[in-house]
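Summary of Year 1 activities. Much of the first year was spent building the evaluation harness for sequence design. The harness presents a backbone, in tokenized form, and records the residue chosen at every position. We chose the following record to illustrate the format because it has been used consistently in internal testing since the harness was completed.
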């Protein structure tokens, strides 16, 4: 309301006065605006004063006010001689924090016998003004009507009505009589005595309410008397004394300064328009006017209004914090910031609201504080939530960093930390930090708590610890698996390449040894990870299964068709093409190829059955209870099914045939003789080429190179491997030729078949 600019046309001059109550007894909506923007008094707190003028109509009241306070109240036109001031006008004393109230004159012929407005305006003035100026002519002193005695009786009556409760009465009101046109020789004090005796008489005649029977007029009023010379007849004296009188209102250092603290109605200036309005509303509606209640109501209204304005500013100030917190960030010094904003809001509230009714103010302050706290609680909770999240992240990171530093170390090397100690240290650090952050957020006069959040955080730390422990164990398991895999890769191939009776026992021994070694590492790590015994047993069982799986897979790789064929061929070659001392055999005519081949064939008979399954005989005791009970090792030892064994035997047979034929062919080659005349003929015919080669550096170098290579191959007896390499390279191209040769040989030597019965060299029965 107070921000609305005035729409009422002001009376006679610049807008410095306002008809607050019009002749129809309506209260002006512009009062708030004038207080704040025209008179600038709204922010003065109690630092303002208020004067009201009373008196009969057209007795120069407005003239007096204008002369004393520099106001511009309308003054009666001499010729018209009719009532000028209607209702109640307000203005500000020029250059002073003084509100002047020009009240419609009494005895006005315009209102006739209607004394109601007089009573209402008296009530209104007594409830608001510190000083009531009573304006009267000197010659009226001693007369009942002319001296406003009727009006004063009304004033006294309404005063008793207002302050019938002794406890609610605070201070007094100054009745300041201004006797105009003091032209007689009667001294002022005599005039004052006459007025005082009249007043006492009126007071004594008043019927006092219960409890106030014995009270005196001076309990409620102080009296002041002053006279002014005739304005028209003695203008100089009038002006001189009017100036002197003006100083009594304007100069606080004046010994006769009229505004004493005890007269002040103690209505804060910002609440005065509302107070005046509600009082007037009560007066107009003829309801009992109870000033203390009014002041309480005003206090409630104004405290709410002040709190709302302060809260708006407070909400604006903390608004930027919300999105930050909602985005999950931790706001630095949030506790301090919240405290600062709350302190500012309370200070502003206190500054404006503490002037009002104390109990109401205290109650409203509590409400205001509770509202501020409720708003800040949201920030507090958001920050706590973010702090907890950050704490979890910090905990996770610090543990990962600490534990991660060991992940690159060998699985077999002992851990350089104790998991429980590391977790405890990290957890304590994070919780301490969280508690510190949360504590810094707790504001005075709040019942905020973060115990539940701290407990929740602790629980979540435990969950993370378990997760990390699980991850760590998995990582450890993976490392161990890799370790055993790499060991099996090397060892299994070596052991299986020697297909002897004790082959499987060597493999199983190796398996158990490797496991034992890695299990030691697992136990050490588990101890560091604070793994309980049953869990460790489960992990070891799991590890053994995985390890067996790795071994079994590795062995199966080694026993694939291709690998088996290579292995069988290698074994056969070792036995057939090398003698007992390991020296390669060179077959010559007359050598017992068939016999040697038979021996080799005999030794190969047990190879395929040996590889048919992992033989765990002899390890029953060691393997008993070695694996988890759900695992039956007999389901995981078969390598070659009977069908597969037969198929392999068949395929190996062909390989063996080729080896046998190769040996036979080498004998044929070495026994073939070249006729001498052919040699002579070649020498004669090739003489020219021979000369060309030995005279050409290029041919000579090529000859020497190939000759040297041939010699080395011959000396080192590498013709076999070289031939084999050449054969593999040219296998496809020569396959056809090879078949033709086989056919030709079969035609020439049908009696030289290597196998006479249906038992093969691998020991597998032919179908
Ligand atoms: N004799 C005399 N006349 C005065 C004095 N002061 C004012 N007047 C005249 O009295 C008349 C009324 O003056 P106002 O100031 O309008 O009187 P008022 O009491 O405010 O009148 P309402 O507002 O109509 O009640 C004017 O014509 C003034 O010139 C004074 O001190 N002595």
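For this record, the design step produced the sequence shown next.
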């Amino acid at each position: 309301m107070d921000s609305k600019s005035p729409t009422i046309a002001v009376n006679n001059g610049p807008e410095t006065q306002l008809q607050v109550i019009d002749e129809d007894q309506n209260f002006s909506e512009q009062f708030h605006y004038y207080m704040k923007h025209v008179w600038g008094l709204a922010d003065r707190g109690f630092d303002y004063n208020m004067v009201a003028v009373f008196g009969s109509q057209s007795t120069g009241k407005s003239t007096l006010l204008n002369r004393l306070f520099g106001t511009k109240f309308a003054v009666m036109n001499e010729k018209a001689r009719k009532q000028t001031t209607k209702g109640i006008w307000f203005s500000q004393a020029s250059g002073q924090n003084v509100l002047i109230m020009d009240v419609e004159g009494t005895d006005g012929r315009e209102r006739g016998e209607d004394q109601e407005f007089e009573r209402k305006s008296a009530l209104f003035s007594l409830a608001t003004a510190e000083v009531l100026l009573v304006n009267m002519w000197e010659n009226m002193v001693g007369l009942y009507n002319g001296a406003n005695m009727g009006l004063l009786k009304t004033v006294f009556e309404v005063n008793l009505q207002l302050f019938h409760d002794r406890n609610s009465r605070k201070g007094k009101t100054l009745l300041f009589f201004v006797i105009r046109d003091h032209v007689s020789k009667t001294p002022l004090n005599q005039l004052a005595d006459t007025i005082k005796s009249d007043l006492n008489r009126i007071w004594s005649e008043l019927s006092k309410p219960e409890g106030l029977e014995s009270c005196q007029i001076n309990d409620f009023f102080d009296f002041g008397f002053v006279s002014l010379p005739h304005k028209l007849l003695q203008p100089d004296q009038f002006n001189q004394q009017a100036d002197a009188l003006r100083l009594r209102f304007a100069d606080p250092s004046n010994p006769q300064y009229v505004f004493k603290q005890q007269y002040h109605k103690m209505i804060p200036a910002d609440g005065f328009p509302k107070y005046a309005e509600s009082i007037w509303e009560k007066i107009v509606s003829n309801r009992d006017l109870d000033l203390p209640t009014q002041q309480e109501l005003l206090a409630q209204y104004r405290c709410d209004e002040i709190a709302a304005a302060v809260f708006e500013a407070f909400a604006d100030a903390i608004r930027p914090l919300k999105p930050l917190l909602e985005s999950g960030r931790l706001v630095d010094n949030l506790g301090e910031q919240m405290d600062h904003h709350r302190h500012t809001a309370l200070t502003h509230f206190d500054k404006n609201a503490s002037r009002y009714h104390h109990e109401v103010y205290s109650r409203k302050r509590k409400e205001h504080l509770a509202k501020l706290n409720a708003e800040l609680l949201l920030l507090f909770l958001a920050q706590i939530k973010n702090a907890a999240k950050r704490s979890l992240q910090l905990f996770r990171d610090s543990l990962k960093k600490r534990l991660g530093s060991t992940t690159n170390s060998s699985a077999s090397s002992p851990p350089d930390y104790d998991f429980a100690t590391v977790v405890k240290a990290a957890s304590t650090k994070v919780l301490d930090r969280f508690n510190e952050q949360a504590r810094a957020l707790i504001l005075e006069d709040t019942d905020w708590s973060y115990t539940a959040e701290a407990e929740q955080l602790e629980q979540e730390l435990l969950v993370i610890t378990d997760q990390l422990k699980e991850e760590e164990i998995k990582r450890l398991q993976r490392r161990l698996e890799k370790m055993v895999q790499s060991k099996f890769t090397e060892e299994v191939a070596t052991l299986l390449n020697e297909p002897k009776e004790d082959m499987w026992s060597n493999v199983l021994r190796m398996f158990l040894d490797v496991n034992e070694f890695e299990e030691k590492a697992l136990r050490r790590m588990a101890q560091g990870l604070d793994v309980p015994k049953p869990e460790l047993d489960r992990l070891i069982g799991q590890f053994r299964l995985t390890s067996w799986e790795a071994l079994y897979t590795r062995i199966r790789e080694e026993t694939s068709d291709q690998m088996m064929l290579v292995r069988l061929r290698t074994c056969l070659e070792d036995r057939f093409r090398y003698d007992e001392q390991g020296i390669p055999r060179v077959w010559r005519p007359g050598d017992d190829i068939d016999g040697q081949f038979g021996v080799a064939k005999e030794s190969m008979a047990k190879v395929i059955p040996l590889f048919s399954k992992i033989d765990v005989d002899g390890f029953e005791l060691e393997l008993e209870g070695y694996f988890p009970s759900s695992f039956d090792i007999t389901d995981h030892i078969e390598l070659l099914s009977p069908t597969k064994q037969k198929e392999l035997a068949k395929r190996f047979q062909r390989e063996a045939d080729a080896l046998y034929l190769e040996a036979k062919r080498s004998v044929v080659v070495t026994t073939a003789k070249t006729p001498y005349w052919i040699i002579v003929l070649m020498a004669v015919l090739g003489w020219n080429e021979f000369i060309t080669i030995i005279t050409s550096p290029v041919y000579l170098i090529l000859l020497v190179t190939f000759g040297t290579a041939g010699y080395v191959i011959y000396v080192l007896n590498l013709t076999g491997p070289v031939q084999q390499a050449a054969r593999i390279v040219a296998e496809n191209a020569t396959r056809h030729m090879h078949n033709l040769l086989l056919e030709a040989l079969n035609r020439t030597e049908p009696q030289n078949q290597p196998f006479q019965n249906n038992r093969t060299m691998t020991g597998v029965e032919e179908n």
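The beta strands are 17-21, 49-55, 88-92, 98-103, 131-137, 173-180, 221-227. Quantitative recovery figures across the full test set are reported in Table 2.
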